[in-house]
Known about the structure:
Pyr_nucl-diS_OxRdtase_dimer, seven-stranded mixed β-sheet, 22 strands, 31% helix, alpha/beta, nucleotide-binding, Dihydrolipoyl dehydrogenase, FAD/NAD(P)-binding domain, five-stranded parallel β-sheet, 467 residues
Amino acid sequence: MQYDVIVIGSGPGGYICAIRCAQLGLKTAIIEKYKTLGGTCLNVGCIPSKALLDSSEHYHNAAHSFAEHGIKLENLQVDLAQMIARKSEVVSQVCKGVEFLMKKNKIDVYQGKGSFVDKNTVKVTKDSGEIEMVTSKNIVIATGSKPSSLPGITIDKQRIITSTEALQMKEVPKHLIVIGAGVIGAELGSVYARIGAKVSFVEYASAMIPTMDSTMGKELQRSMKKLGADFYLSHKVKTVENTGDEVVVTAENPKGETVTFTGDYCLMSVGRRPFTDGLALENAGLTTDARGKIEVDEHTLQTKVSNIYAIGDVIRGAMLAHKAEEEGVFVAETIVGQKPHINYSLIPGVVYTWPEVASVGSTEEELKAKGVPYKSGSFPFKALGRARASMDIDGTVKVLAHKETDEILGAHIIGPRAADMIAEAVVAMEYRASAEDISRMSHAHPTYTEAFKEACLAATGNRALNA
């Protein structure tokens, strides 16, 4: 078969790219090695983790705050099997939705492992061993990423697990040791802490979510301590051993001393690596860099082979589903001769704990390092009527604005519905709004977004009205 575009990988970047290509009149095919479409995000990442996060939050609220709301329950229990089953049903529905979109947009789907024969030809090896050849004028690599580990540590998927296995647990851990207190570790650690597990975070950096503004990490750690979580920051993990019914983690603490942690499960959440295994990139004249990423032209997302593009986790930048989606649309429009644009500095990051954490633009640490003159305004959720009404008073909104022009340079939120609230900051910053612009816009009362307005008011140099 001859196509205008073949997309390898059906995650958010891949399937969105394929849809946009089809919308633009290109004959399009997508290749997926797994039996369901949707990639890591829909199958073993974003969607299932959010399903479990919601279920565990419902249980936690029922156990700890329903009585104050006037709701009395007896014999409250965790049915982990049902939680997992509901999560799986959510995944099934979303993946079927992608399958429907492929049919709706007349995109041919090939199930099997795609590998390059040359720069225009891809071999699809089906599970049965049957091989099919497809050719295309353009090819897009959108194969995503896989969980990383640490040198010398073997992930056995039994006691020493990744995020994939953490989404399929048969029991609530007695003591879950989480190596890495970044986004994935924080989210899955919070799931099991809410439903009764003892959770210990062992983190190499000196703070939680170390790539985000330091205020966010401090606030999130304070909140998660309320769940009973322990934190061992600035600890370097040396070994992880499955001893049968337990896992023993050996680490070096900040003083250089050897310390050990014993639990029944260990979750490795030390990041992800680009997944290009088995693509036979060399047959197309492509290579990867030292980090396993494919180099692309920043203006076109073309690889060094002009008809081959790469998007998402296999190229530079944050490993985020929505970043991959934007790149998928970008590539489709580039192929037909349009001039699309992505502002990489304004792609938001989110941690779906509760309270949620969301961030866009520069952190305070980055502005200091660059010598940019700035001013900061904050507003705590405990001073917000809407947050008081829902009993979600943990967290704060922090806005960073240029000291001279008042342009918003960064917005960092930890609190209820932060993941949704950050969109207002993204819009404001895309249009280069000032903190005063936002502070003079009417925000419905009572809403969580009033906290963003108040933080902007504080950043202008005036005092917030409700704090």
